[in-house]
Specification:
The complex is a heterodimer of chains A (143) and B (142).
Chain A (H helix, E strand, L loop, with lengths): L16 H4 L2 H24 L6 H26 L8 H24 L3 H25 L5
Chain B lengths: L16 H27 L4 H23 L2 H27 L20 H15 L8
Classes of the chains: A mainly alpha (143), B mainly alpha (142).
Keywords (chain B): Membrane, Transmembrane, Transmembrane helix
Protein name (chain B): Integral membrane protein
Protein name (chain A): Integral membrane protein
């Protein structure tokens, strides 16, 4: 489903043009943050350590970014933009992204070993992969 | 999760490394199921074989996830059978897609041995089988 369909960008002259494609940079930001979290927690797992307070702070930051992305995505939809891959798929991906890190965060609370850290790292990698898919579904890469 | 109030020491399949395994299986279960529901309900006619296989894969992932979380003796057996089925499925469908790509107008989770999913569909059942063999309390030994 490569981006053939172009979303209408009718909102040009009223100062909204920046937000018209705010989602793509945000997608990159979330992906980078998720990978950083994955590396950090992966390192903790490598050093045989459970997740600690700072890791949870990192998870909170990444989750907050994902929630911002969810809100921005829904606002874009409300403005009448159409994701290439369909609205249902787009919203599902946004929700999945937002749920990723909290879910593994709880897992690591119950698993106070290196494997808890590894689980968070895996969840963060999944989140980064979902960002790539989200980019496709949104129709990024169009001109 | 919901441990019965019996013996507190219930070495489950979802402890330690098992936690990571269960998480990955849960991701695949949720991802494959939602994808499958969407495909079957919106465009089944485009690639019936691929979508039916995806649905089967999704069901297998769900069963394995549940079995690993529950972790009793019966669940162990179920997980063992399903992991073996999953491995067989990945190998069969993977080989099939390589030999006859035209049979699959759209990809399944198991196409090309799961290459589109970082080969995890191939790796997970192998690790799952190993984990089922090695995890604590195999057949009441502990």
């Amino acid at each position: 489903m490569g981006g053939g369909f172009r979303r209408g960008r009718s909102v040009r002259d009223d100062g909204l043009e920046y937000s018209a494609d705010m989602l793509t940079p945000l997608t990159v930001a979330v992906a980078v943050a998720a990978l950083a979290l994955a590396a950090w927690c992966g390192f903790a797992a490598y050093r045989d350590q459970p997740t600690k307070d700072w890791h949870f702070a990192g998870m909170a930051v990444v989750t907050a970014l994902a929630l911002v992305q969810l809100v921005v995505g829904v606002v874009q939809l409300a403005r009448g933009e159409k994701p290439d891959g369909g609205t249902v798929v787009f919203v599902s991906y946004l929700l999945g992204v937002a749920a990723c890190v909290p879910a593994v965060g709880f897992m690591s609370l119950a698993e106070r070993t290196r494997w808890g850290s590894a689980t968070v790292a895996a969840g963060a990698v999944v989140m980064a992969v979902l960002q790539v898919r989200l980019y496709d579904v949104w129709g990024g890469g169009h001109g | 999760m919901a441990d019965p109030p019996g013996p507190p020491e219930r070495p489950g399949l979802n402890r330690g490394p098992g936690r990571l395994l269960v998480t990955l299986y849960a991701v695949f279960a949720i991802g494959a199921t939602s994808r499958s529901v969407y495909q079957l309900s919106t465009r089944f006619d485009e690639a019936p074989l691929a979508y039916v296989l995806s649905a089967v894969a999704a069901a297998v992932y769900v069963v394995i996830t549940v079995a690993l979380v529950r972790g009793g003796r019966g669940a162990r057996r179920v997980a063992l059978v399903c992991c073996a089925a999953e491995l067989a499925g990945v190998l069969t469908v993977g080989t099939w897609t390589v030999l006859d790509p035209s049979a699959f107008p759209d990809a399944t989770v198991w196409s090309d041995y799961g290459l589109g999913y970082l080969l995890l569909p191939l790796v997970l059942p192998v690790i799952g089988l190993l984990w089922l063999r090695r995890s604590p309390a195999g057949a009441g030994a502990a």
